[in-house]
Design a protein that fits this description.
This protein is of the alpha+beta class. 22% of the residues lie in helices and 26% in strands. Helix 6 runs antiparallel to helix 7. The longest helix is centred in the last third of the chain and has 22 residues. 53% of the residues are buried.
Length: 1016
């Protein structure tokens, strides 16, 4: 960041061009390519497992793009092939995220940093690999040819490598399941199965097969989605299988004995190789030999939620693994000896007749896994193996997904190497977090690298090495996800998968890939178990579409559905008060996995239903709901999510005024919010983390991404300003005797004086993590630098982890505040706009002003009393510094919704507001959003925070001297002295952009001023 600031200053001195002069047409992103490797569990200290050389290895990654970028032609420098497609779009139609498939080379364990993503054309092109016809889809990767039937689907109908055919037609091939009674169901029996090319290109082609498992009598068991991914120059297939129990035709918890994907090879009497916890085991099958089966049950790998299952309901039911033939053990391992790479291989005894390797990615996940090879060449992947001897129960409204690899060859291959490269993929990300900040890929979150954090703390001599949780260069631990009890294990403020993704972006060390692996594990679990799926019905209309889904006009409890006896005794779904779903949006954007988008939108339908049925909101449930509805709109661009979010915001925050013991809503004097659940409470005690983090984030996110017009932007911005000022002025408790002990209470009573010393309160340190966004936005509203000084105290407490919380060091809002502290000059802000007000004979007003420098938008307010920045409420004395009967806070004043576009600096502008009261004089105030980088005049650092006085306001009445105002505007044009206001993306705040040719290495570098809100 320091290099970035130097570049910014140098560019500003050399060349300063206003944003209006040109559209942003330059793009140059240095990238880092590496393996995603976890910690070696056998090492006594943190050490990544050893990497492996990659040649023409496939990699899929995404890049966020600035909304100002006009070009649609891109090139990936450092790669031969690159298949580039849009993923989502900005409101102006330009790409927001793009997905890239490529083939690259990398030495094992290294980071390659000579790749760049930029504008232009240069990657090789080739024909699309998949071709559709009425009865089949064929895929030619160059290394192999694959055939998939569109009717009587049997998995893979044929695989051809050169002159060698590797598969044969055989009964009971493809996807097959057995129910609790032993009946067999298959995909081949579904006459309505749909096979389509979901994605097609020169590097990657993906087929999506959707259907229903049926028996020969056409009875249905469950739906499924199978995705087959093919890669150029490779002869393997990456298979993702999702079993779906979310049909209104079958409203029950699904009980299964097994689920398998089986194919028949042309290899008879094969030589077999199976993985174990040590060296692979090999044997040769003769024509009448029994099949060989490898089963992986429970193990003691680090896992999330492993102990939440009682023994009789755990999906695996047994510990360790067994490799056996005809019930005779060939190899085994205990729970402490898990199989790291779960694969099997069958090969012909004669050379060049075929080799097939198959297995499961991270078989130590939620459910057990099994692989089987028969003497006649049939090989089977069990997504739910029969070896446990019990039935599996799949909760209604949930999915179950497993990931597999089928690798075909004609010559002997290293099975371990194939599965290592599959299980630990290559990943690519921008070399530093700066591009994500530029393109706003993480919403209001600003990313700070781990190196920048370490430098920041070291420069202040903060001792951060005593607590492992406080070490900024932390070592992430990878743990496959088994099950999650949200009430007990989920962080209450932030979605942990989102934190993993953000850490992946901001960690430059090789172990960044561990964060990526962990995020994918969490996201896979969320997509299956944590959302409520509604695959063939609209969840928001569930009672009308399927009566069994409702009971007393409420969702039918799981315990009332058939098969409930097999369910675990905990809640795997997002609970109503902690909807940790919004990482699915970022997960889809950063991985391009369509399953995450499907799951998020399916859960969105359920959320809309909750929104209709839930009359009383808690603060936590309200904030989560608003936040997720906003993210659902971003992903889908469906108007119903935006409309639901705006209606919710109006209903709870805008249309209600909070009064003690009487009503909920917004307190328009102090800025806080009271939820419906506390409307009648005389003592309104609130969780600091809920109001200071969750609700602030929800307001800011809606303003950032979902406010569609001037009314929605202005009103939401006012809510955000009021709440942010409340958090910073009231909740923050400065300790003048010991600044490092300053902090936030865990809970706050809105109606009584708080103790002066927050350390006297129980668990006061839990409130530390709640105030980051409050300081961030209040500083942007006020430009009072002492909020950054207070933020320093909060950062010090975080660095030393006074709260002893594992999630504190990685708190996303802390990164945002840190970014503002380090780079205040780069943030656009709001500043007071001097006005001349004329009142006409008919009672109307004319407001005139001179356009200030670098202004991008305005906000005008009026009230019946003078408008001030803040009413200076003192929580100790319970009094206002400015009488609420005689003054109005800017955030609480009425909006004038006639905001013109700013013109050139120094030109005269005016508006004649309509629909204003005419029976009494009115007071006006205005602000403008500016990208002028000049630092504001600093306040006296010695002044007492509690006694801080507001800077002179800009309001005036019709009785003021017009001549004096005219002289002021003419002789002293606005110079942006103090204090700015908040900005969020929905405002048109594009930065000044400067381009400068740097001679270093002959590269063209572009550095753009960071802003809190881009142009829309």
């Amino acid at each position: 960041m320091r290099l970035g600031l130097c570049l910014w200053c140098w560019v500003g001195l050399c060349l300063w061009l206003p944003a209006q002069a040109h559209a942003h047409t330059n793009l140059y992103i240095p990238l880092t390519l590496q393996e995603a490797l976890p910690n070696n569990p056998d090492s006594p200290t943190f050490q990544l497992i050893k990497g492996m050389d990659r040649l023409d290895e496939p990699v899929t990654f995404t890049i966020p793009l600035d909304p100002d970028l006009e070009s649609i032609n891109y090139v990936l420098i450092g790669a031969k092939y690159a298949q580039i497609t849009p993923l989502t779009a900005w409101p102006n139609g330009r790409p927001r995220w793009i997905k890239i498939h490529s083939l690259v080379d990398l030495r094992g364990g290294e980071q390659y940093q000579k790749m760049f993503f930029t504008l232009g054309e240069g990657n090789l092109t080739a024909p699309d690999m998949a071709k559709d016809s009425p009865d089949k889809i064929t895929v030619d990767t160059g290394a192999a040819q694959f055939t998939v039937r569109k009717t009587q689907f049997n998995g893979l109908d044929q695989v051809q490598i050169g002159e060698t055919t590797l598969l044969r037609n055989a009964p009971l091939s493809g996807l097959i399941a057995e129910d609790a009674d032993g009946k067999t169901y298959s995909a081949e029996s579904d006459p309505n199965l749909r096979a389509v090319i979901e994605e097609n290109g020169s590097v990657r082609s993906i087929l999506r097969i959707q259907g229903t498992l049926r028996n020969t009598a056409q009875e249905s068991l469950a739906d499924f989605t199978l995705r087959l991914a093919f890669t150029r120059s490779r002869s393997d297939v990456r298979l993702t299988l999702t079993l779906q129990n979310a049909s209104k035709q079958r409203i029950r918890h699904l009980r299964l004995r097994s689920l398998r994907f089986s194919l028949a090879s042309k290899i008879s009497a094969p030589r077999t190789t199976f993985s174990t916890h040590t060296t692979p085991f090999s044997t040769t099958l003769q024509s009448n030999d029994a099949p060989v089966t490898l089963f992986q049950g429970r193990n003691r790998l680090p896992t999330l939620g492993l102990d939440l299952y009682p023994a009789d309901k755990h999906p695996a039911r047994s510990d360790g693994y067994t490799l056996q033939q005809a019930q005779q053990p060939l190899a085994s391992g205990t729970a402490a000896q898990p199989i790291a790479l779960f694969f099997a291989q069958l090969s012909a005894t004669q050379p060049d007749q075929g080799v097939i390797t198959f297995g499961t990615r991270f078989a130590a996940q939620y459910a057990p896994q099994s692989l089987e090879i028969n003497a006649d060449g049939r090989f089977t992947l069990y997504a739910l193996p029969p070896q446990i001897g019990h039935t599996y129960t799949l909760r209604f409204g949930s999915h179950h997904t497993t990931e597999h690899l089928l690798d075909f060859a004609t010559k002997t291959t290293d099975a371990s190497a194939s599965f290592f490269r599959y299980q630990y993929p290559l990943v690519i990300r921008p070399k530093t977090p700066e591009w994500h900040n530029e393109a706003f890929s993480a919403g209001i979150d600003r990313l700070i690298s781990f190196k920048e954090e370490e430098s920041y703390f070291t420069a202040r001599n903060w001792k951060v090495t005593g607590d492992p949780l406080a070490i900024q260069d932390r070592r992430p631990q990878f743990a496959p996800v088994r099950a999650l009890q949200w009430d007990a294990t989920a962080p209450l403020l932030h979605d942990p998968a989102r934190i993993d993704l953000l850490n992946y972006f901001r960690q430059e060390a090789p172990h960044a890939g561990t964060y990526y692996l962990q995020a994918r594990q969490r996201l896979a679990y969320y997509a299956d178990q944590s959302v409520f799926h509604s695959d063939d019905f609209e969840a928001s209309d569930r009672c009308q579409q399927a009566a069994a889904l409702c009971k007393n006009n409420q969702p039918t409890p799981d315990a009332d559905l058939a098969g409930a006896e097999g369910l675990p005794p905990f809640q795997p779904r997002f609970p109503i008060h902690d909807r940790h779903a919004y990482s699915l949006a970022l997960g889809y954007h950063t991985t391009g996995d369509p399953r995450l988008r499907d799951a998020f939108l399916a859960w969105g339908e359920h959320l809309l239903y909750e929104n209709q049925q839930e009359p009383t909101e808690t603060l936590r449930s309200y904030a989560w709901k608003l936040l997720n509805l906003t993210k659902l709109y971003v992903i889908s661009k469906e108007a119903r999510y935006q409309q639901a979010a705006w209606a919710l915001l109006q209903r709870e925050s805008l249309d209600k005024s909070a009064k003690v013991g009487e009503s909920s809503g917004t307190d328009w004097r102090r800025g806080f919010f009271v939820p419906s659940s506390q409307a009648k409470e005389a003592q309104r005690i609130q969780s600091t983390e809920e109001i200071a983090e969750l609700l602030l984030r929800a307001y800011a996110s809606f303003l950032d991404d979902a406010a569609l017009d001037e009314t929605q932007r202005d009103k939401t911005r006012s809510l955000l300003e009021g709440l942010a000022r409340f958090v910073s002025h009231e909740l923050w408790r400065p300790n003048t005797q010991n600044p490092a002990a300053s902090g936030y209470p865990k809970q706050y009573n809105l109606d009584t004086a708080p103790p002066i010393d927050p350390t006297t309160l129980p668990d006061w340190q839990d409130g530390l993590r709640a105030g980051y966004l409050g300081f961030f936005f209040t500083y942007l509203f006020s430009r009072d630098k002492r909020w950054l000084e207070s933020a320093e105290r909060l950062q010090e407490a975080t660095a030393n982890n006074q709260a002893k919380r594992a999630d504190l060091p990685d708190h996303p809002s802390r990164q945002t505040l840190h970014h503002a502290q380090e780079a205040t000059i780069l943030y656009a802000a709001w500043r007071p706009l001097p006005l001349r007000i004329d009142r006409e004979s008919d009672g109307t007003y004319i407001l005139r002003w001179l356009a200030p420098p670098a202004a991008k938008t305005y906000q005008f307010k009026y009230a019946q009393t003078p408008i001030v920045d803040w009413l200076d409420y003192n929580p100790q004395t319970r009094t206002f510094g400015k009488d609420p009967a005689q003054h109005t806070a800017f955030f609480a004043a009425q909006d004038i919704l006639q905001e013109p576009t700013p013109t050139e600096h120094g030109t005269l502008q005016s508006i004649r507001p309509d629909k204003l009261p005419k029976d009494q004089p009115l007071f006006f105030a205005a602000r403008y959003a500016s990208t002028d980088p000049r630092a504001p005049t600093p306040l006296d650092p010695e002044a007492d925070l509690e006694a801080l006085q507001e800077s002179p306001s800009t309001e005036t009445t019709a009785d003021a001297s017009v001549d004096a105002l005219t002289d002021t505007l003419t002789d002293n044009p606005p110079q942006d002295p103090t204090p700015p206001h908040n900005g969020c993306r929905c405002e048109a705040l594009s930065p000044h952009e400067g381009l400068v040719w740097l001679g270093l290495f002959g590269l063209l570098l572009t550095y753009r001023k960071r802003r809190i809100v881009p142009e829309r």
